[in-house]
Description:
Layout: E1 23-25, E2 30-33, E3 36-39, H1 52-56, E4 62-64, E5 82-92, E6 98-108, H2 156-159, E7 168-171, E8 176-179, E9 182-185, E10 191-192, H3 195-199, E11 205-208, H4 217-221, E12 224-225, E13 230-234, E14 238-243, E15 254-257, E16 261-268, E17 272-279, E18 290-293, E19 298-303, E20 328-330, E21 340-342, H5 345-351
Amino acid sequence: MPRCARKGCGKEFLSTENTETSCRYHPGAPVFHEGLKSWSCCSSINKPVLEFDQFMAIAGCEVSAHTEAVPQVIPQVPKPAAATSEILKVTESKKGKEVYSMARTLQPQTSTRLSTTLPAEPVLPSHPEEEDDLSIAVALGTECRHKGCSVIFVSDAENRIGNGEGTICTYHPAPPIFHEGSKGYLCCKRRVLEFEEFLKIEGCKKGRHVFVPKQSASEELAEQFAECRVDHYQTPNEVHVSVFAKQADKDRSKVTVDETQVHFDLYLPAQKRFKRTIQLFGSVEPEGCSYKFFGSKVEVVLKKLDTRSWTVLEKTTRDLGNINLTFGVGGRTGTIGGKEIILDEQNKNRAS
């Protein structure tokens, strides 16, 4: 199966399914400056990143069809600046008088790097290799996490179990390094100048693919519990609860709803975890409740057993006093400029 040669894509494709919207790529060249990595074509949209994996994950800014032809990007070579120097020039006029003037001459700038010794490449700390967790299922189409390997997961029998050809991974165990314009990996000696050639450097070690990394014991111990903001609003029949847990892992996280409580166990990035049980102010129907994961929050919809207004979300032993809550107002403009107050049955009786 042919592979797309556009930068930022590199996916395998079928010519029969190749359309003008199949490929997302970068038409520009990669830019590496003082440790930051970005693309020249979309540096104003996608901010420069520090990690190489983050750089490779930057989505393409152009859409087109896949192609096997290698795109040509002409790099801009800066012109060396010319240094100027002033020389005192003496001339003689027709009357025999000497005239003094300053004459400027251009001198080509020479590089001082030829006479200096290149600094040694920085020694980066060692990185422990990841191990595939065979107990966790892998989604179809997942790419191997090893650097230099672009194998796409097909099935456990093909890529994870046994000693077949599809289970062998050729990869780079060490991180990439960019030094004085050269590009390569710390684990092998080959260095190239062009970014396209860097992506083609074949791995120097053989092992097993890693699709789902196994969590080490140190990572489990380093897990920290975090606090997340919990907000809610209600209608006569439902209570909407929002837990602002950004980028929660929906595959590992759990939300359990009982008649009188809701339990949150959310796994967050950077080894953080939010765990909390809320004793509800009123009773709900667990079968009628639902929840959904979003990029910035987890939203739970609780179905009330009755239409009473909840004074608070979480049950408390404190005396809250005589508090009457409305569910909202009706009208063309919603809560602003509404003309009709909507009450539950209990508050309707009090108002009458």
